[in-house]
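Our consortium's second objective concerns turning raw sequence data into structural hypotheses that experimental partners can test. To show how far this objective has progressed, the report includes one record in full. It was chosen at random from the queue rather than selected for favorable results. The single chain below, 457 residues long, was entered without modification.
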Amino acid sequence: MNLNPLLNAIEHQVLSRSLTPIERFVFTQSWDGRTYNDIARVSGYDSVYVKQIGSQLWQDLSDGLSTKVTKKNLHIVFGSFDSDSTSSFSVVTTSLEVDRLVVPVEMPSGPLPADSPLYVERPPIETLVYEEIEKPGCAICIQAPHKTGKNSLLNQLFARVRPLDYHTVSIDFQEADTSILSSLDRLLRWFCANVSHQLSLPNRLSDYWDEDMGSKVSCKLYFEGYLLSQLDKPVVLAFNEVHHLFDRPDIARDFLSMLRVWHEQARFVELWQTLRLVLLYGTEQSVRLKIERSPLPIGLSVRLPPFDRAQVRELARRYGLPWAEGDAEAPELDRITTTIGGHPYLANLTLYHLSQDNISLETLLQTAPTQTGIYRNYLRDRLATLHDDPMLMVALQKVVTADNGVELEALTAYKLESLGVIRLDGNRAFPTCQLDRLYFREQLANLDTNASVMSRF
């Protein structure tokens, strides 16, 4: 597109002044998707000065058009400019007011609040969970690798039941002191006290706790005889970071079997139907525990999938990236999804950096699998988990160095899939994405694959 007619129209119709040479240069380079650092290198100006020029220009344009103009939405505001039409700006401006994009200013970290514009649904997951939570006595188990959206989905679920006047309680096992996790009795008393507090009910543990009947029966009586009988609406009881119990297998087994009994009680006892259970845990723990199946076979089991191409594109649109608009093929989108495989946290991290203009897509992708790339901390965490199991490292090395996938022993494949470093297509294992292939191929290149270990595969 020849930008001269557009720039002339901006001068006469919007700013009522001439653009300076540096303003024209910043506008045209920004239109082509260059970062401020790129513009500074080409122009010879300091990057801070270039950013100041750009910021002031976008503010002047915003004032002239009475709508927000940023470096990221130039194509949205001016993309349909017609040099023969004097009403072009007002038409585009009206469209933008209806569908304004929100660009976050904070680095992606932690769960998204329920009202976040960055929450992208993954059908049919939300529909399944929303429908299930309204069923009397239901139980929902949400499992997925680290940083894939479990808690963000829980926030959406709590927001969903709020208009229904459901009570909501969230038990986070990260908050439990080490001493509390030392015995089942201490854990269940902490649990009951926590629920009482969140329901704004007095603590009456001394009235229901009986050593002779045991902790699990005492806990059941506390809920049955006190907590649930006080409520006039269902209560959604969510357990977050359940895998923190797995360090204590006996306690975890007793606690989870108790919840399973409660869930089964709801089939016969009306009072227990007011309790709706939601359990969240990271699948990575199956690697450390050396288990052969999910530790939570209760109720509806939901595993969160990665974003598909359309969902990544929608997220990019919400970050205000111009190439995410319209019907274009968006080669940038293909390069991003190939690199990260639709991982929700990595998608947000990628799009955040691109939206802030502090790195170009080319540089981001070139450094992606290195120790200086934006994914370095995430990759190191998964590598550290693998170091706890040398046999898994050997298996993954085979996967990332093969061109057409590898058949793995079933338990090994389950563990690597739970860790989030492979995907399964039939019986063949592939790296989840190009980022994993490149990073782990480099990190595992010097792995000591002695004959005794290799013979296990």
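The partners drew two points from this record. The two ends are 58 Å apart (CA to CA). The longest strand covers residues 275-282. Both points have been shared with the crystallography group to help prioritize constructs.
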